[in-house]
Records
---
Amino acid sequence: APRVLSGIQPTADSFHLGNYLGALRQWVALQETSDAFYCVVDLHAITVAQDPAVLRHRTRVSAAQLLALGIDTDRATLFVQSQVPEHAQLAWVLNCITGFGEAGRMTQFKDKASRQGSDRASVGLFTYPVLQAADILLYQADQVPVGEDQRQHLELTRDLAGRFNTTYGPTFTVPSPHIVSGAKILDLQDPTSKMSKSASSPAGIVDLLDEPAVSAKKIRSAVTDTGREVRFDPQEKAGVSNLLTIHSALSGRPVAELELEYAGRGYGDLKKDVAAVLTDFTTPLRAAVDGYLADPAQLDAILAEGAERARTVASATLAATFDRVGFLPRV
Ligand code: ATP
Ligand code: MG
């Protein structure tokens, strides 16, 4: 079975619809057909300042959501990144074969650093994609189910794997450039940019754990256009197209069918129905998350077992890497 690795940051009290439709839904599907490793990437989270108590809570909330969404620890290995020290160790080696200019060309870094002011942005934020490469290469992953927004980071991972293999001898699987992802979901208030935990305003984000009334209001207030026609046209009708994408992804009905259904009807009807299909999805999810959070010790035990399993793979890759580089064996 192909090996799959993906991660998500514990940087919000809830995952949003972009996380789910762009990536997490594929995580659940891929555990059936692949040897999947999924991690909550708390090392990535601290590339921007985090309150310790909030981070700890969000790490558990993130794991609870993954379990509630259907990640099954009999099929997939679910763990927290900081509990597998090999991630930080391999990242160091990869940092040393990454060009300064190469890292500086990453658009996510440029976006996030410019939002913070470049003097405030941390060196950790700069090397974020290198740590991501370490996550992937440690597990010799063939496939990486991430959103379209991660394409450039995946390309860097492939470059670093190839460079290391050429310099030191074959060590890492070069992951497929194919993005195993779903839709790119846009900010409801600004449908020219992606829905994002760190960049979107609260009104632009649909959180999976929002109360139904809250998400219905956000969807009702979503920016559309001055026209009246419900038509999928990402250039001219970015907002309406985003709502159609969301409806289609959640209801399983093709966009073309939805266009017919809403022909001659207003945007209001579409928005009402998007809110309804969303509520059908999130109501049982919220209950399941509450169930996991009610017993944090049990949740921590599930994660400890995942980390144990992850370490058996990660430590073998790290040992091979250290040997290639010329580090002395630990006797
Ligand atoms: P941040 O803004 O802090 O980067 P994020 O909202 O992008 O947060 P991440 O934890 O970085 O969330 O990403 C988790 C996964 O969700 C990644 O695989 C990413 O590609 C995917 N993803 C994030 N936003 C979207 C989106 N709007 N549409 C589709 N996929 C997305
Ligand atoms: Mg992101």
Note: The two ends are 34 Å apart (CA to CA).
---
Amino acid sequence: KVRTAILISGRGSNMVAIAQAAQATDYPAEIVGVISNRPDAKGLERAKALGLNTDIVDHKLYDNRKAFEQALHAQLLALDPEIICCAGFMRILTPWFVSQWHGRLINIHPSLLPKYKGLNTHQRAIEAGDTHAGVSVHWVTAELDGGEVIDQRSIEILPHDTADTLAERLLPVELALYPDALEAVALQFQKQPRQ
Ligand code: GAR
């Protein structure tokens, strides 16, 4: 199985969806650890309840982004993952960190990339008059939310949708997409590990 680490900052529902999928004997990835940059992330309890190894690298304890990322990098090296999934991980990663894990880092972003990189994606889709909103799993590169899309799914924006109702209706779509996208990436790794 392909060793996979998950980075979270909050609720952890995508992390749980991945971890539950990974419990199937024929799933190609195994979860070797969950790291949160927030000590109070709800997802940490959920990860422990699933029997997963958890760690905290609290960004507030470091003087700057580089120092935080070096600590995060060290924790990841200890887990020795082949793939790292950002799952609601809300820290921007520097080119240095991304280059350390090039071709191994993936993220889920709540928009139909390349549209709406960054924050407030659903509000921006509604304000633009878009007919659909969605969610994408993509490779992480030095450009924020700019790496190649691995897979994405969409739903229709309804007349009375708000950012909150869209997020609520998209959540089950996300939770189905991320395990499927990780499965596809892990199968590629099994065939041909990236260098
Ligand atoms: C998810 O909706 C995810 O798409 C989004 O944060 C939420 C995390 O929920 N990610 C981003 O906005 C990344 N910029 P979760 O912690 O319950 O998985």
Note: The helical segments are 13-21, 42-49, 65-79, 95-100, 121-127, 163-191.
---
Amino acid sequence: TNVILLGPPGAGKGTQARRLVEAEGLVQLSTGDMLRAAVKAGSPAGLAAKAVMEAGDLVSDEIVVAIVRERLASGDLAKGVIFDGFPRTVGQAQALDVILAEQGLTLTAAIAMDVDDAAMVARISGRSTCAGCGEGYHDTAKRPETAGICDTCGGTEFTRRADDNAETVAERLKAYHAETAPLIAYYADKGLVRPVDAMAAIDDVTGAMIAALNPTN
Ligand code: AP5
Ligand code: ZN
């Protein structure tokens, strides 16, 4: 199973990818996480990406495709990959087709996460992440059971992303509509699109995704 999660910022791609890793044994490939790690490490890709990400624009296809190619070449992806936040342009989708063909892999589905833009701003501005284990939280939608303590690892430090302010979120949504939304038609042409209502509760979205990946008929 190799699946693409297609959806705007805040749709819940990262949240659902983590759950599919547990439920289906897939490996998450998040270009956003990989780029943030590159920025933190100060690598050449990170130095080039930092200002672009802070502005809410898309990092160049060249940089992103290079990091994906490297990750896919590193093996350990036997049970399959969840592409979270990649591809994001038609150029990246075409490059992914080439890379998968080179490795003898095929795509199972592109899950199109349907959401309403206005709700995305609220989701993103309430978001925080456990510094210890990476579990995601939300100020109203998903709080730790005990305030200030991570449910998963017991950690007490939570971080917020530099690009999670209202101004940058508006830019990220613009980039999504201009560059990424056309991928729904790109994958529909290949018969791969599975729409999922991503406005539903987190557990229900997970259930709908698992059903989309494991058709019973
Ligand atoms: P990236 O890290 O990919 O961010 P994004 O696409 O903007 O998506 P987010 O991580 O903000 O949201 P998400 O859909 O994962 O939602 P989450 O699960 O966290 O990219 C960041 C930047 O990196 C880009 O702007 C770009 O510059 C660069 N970049 C990355 N990939 C690139 C590429 N391929 N090409 C070029 N540039 C690239 O959920 C959000 C919040 O909502 C959380 O608090 C969560 O708890 C809550 N929530 C989730 N689901 C629900 C639900 N069903 N109901 C209620 N609350 C929910
Ligand atoms: Zn934690």
Note: Residues 7, 9-15, 31-32, 35, 52-53, 56-59, 64, 85-86, 88, 92, 123-124, 126-127, 136-138, 141-142, 163, 172, 201-202, 205 surround BIS(adenosine)-5'-pentaphosphate (ligand 1) (CB under 6 Å).
